[in-house]
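Quick one, tokens below:
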């Protein structure tokens, strides 16, 4: 499997408009973070997790050319706003429709924001068309892979925690959450790769701080852990030197292959 981090920033991106993070080294391109989304190649099946507002540029920057499944972790703007750009992937599919999975909150937001993209076929040539379904606990894939989902608390809403399994390899992707549930911990225990929300240095009511993310990672014993959804309070050069072994800050365009 191959995981590509398309975006690793928080809801405002990094740097923010009228940036005032004087401690952030903007000469280091790894500190320039678009909103969070990820692309996973599971034995040839191509899966996109979340659609950041910068999705078009993320796909161009990473040469993303095909898509089989779209997964929306939750309906917040920084994860859903780029979904209209999925129209190009619909165009490229034989039936011009794309399978889209989310939780109840995510599907509600998709219906509210993209009513023109729902139906059996595109309303007009070039329009997106989503085959919208609620994400099951286990999504069985045509190539024998599996995607497990588990709810994670994210303030007043729930986020889909996702674990991708192909062969004997596992990647856990847990963004936008305050803590991991017992089920999420069990699914991610000893995984090859774990991706964790690590918003900033101070505590936040709906996200893990980087300190909370490090503690969670230590309990999961993954071979590699990557932190994502970071604000400009976390400088790549500074924090890369502080992290425990086998823990890393993700950055836009980073590819991890297992």
């Amino acid at each position: 499997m191959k995981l590509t981090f398309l975006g690793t920033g928080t809801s405002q991106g990094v740097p923010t408009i009228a940036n005032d993070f004087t401690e952030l080294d903007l000469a280091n391109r790894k500190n320039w973070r678009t909103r969070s989304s990820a692309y996973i190649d599971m034995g040839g099946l191509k899966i996109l997790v979340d659609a950041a507002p910068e999705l078009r540029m993320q796909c161009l920057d990473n040469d993303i050319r095909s898509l089989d499944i779209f997964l929306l972790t939750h309906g917040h703007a920084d994860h859903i706003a780029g979904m209209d750009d999925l129209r190009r992937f619909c165009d490229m599919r034989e039936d011009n429709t794309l399978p889209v999975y989310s939780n109840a909150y995510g599907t509600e937001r998709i219906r509210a924001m993209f009513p023109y993209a729902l139906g059996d076929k595109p309303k007009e040539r070039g329009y997106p068309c989503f085959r919208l379904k609620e994400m099951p606990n286990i999504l069985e894939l045509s190539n024998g892979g599996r995607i497990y989902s588990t709810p994670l608390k994210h303030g007043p809403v729930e986020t889909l925690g996702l674990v991708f399994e192909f062969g004997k390899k596992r990647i856990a992707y847990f963004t936008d959450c305050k803590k991991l549930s017992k089920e999420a911990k069990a699914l991610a225990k000893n995984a090859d790769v774990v991706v964790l929300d690590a918003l900033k240095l101070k505590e936040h009511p709906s996200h893990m701080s980087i300190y909370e993310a490090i503690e969670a990672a230590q309990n999961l014993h993954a071979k590699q852990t990557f932190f994502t959804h970071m604000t400009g309070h976390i400088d790549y050069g500074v924090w890369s030197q502080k992290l425990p072994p086998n823990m890393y800050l993700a950055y836009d365009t980073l590819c991890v292959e297992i």
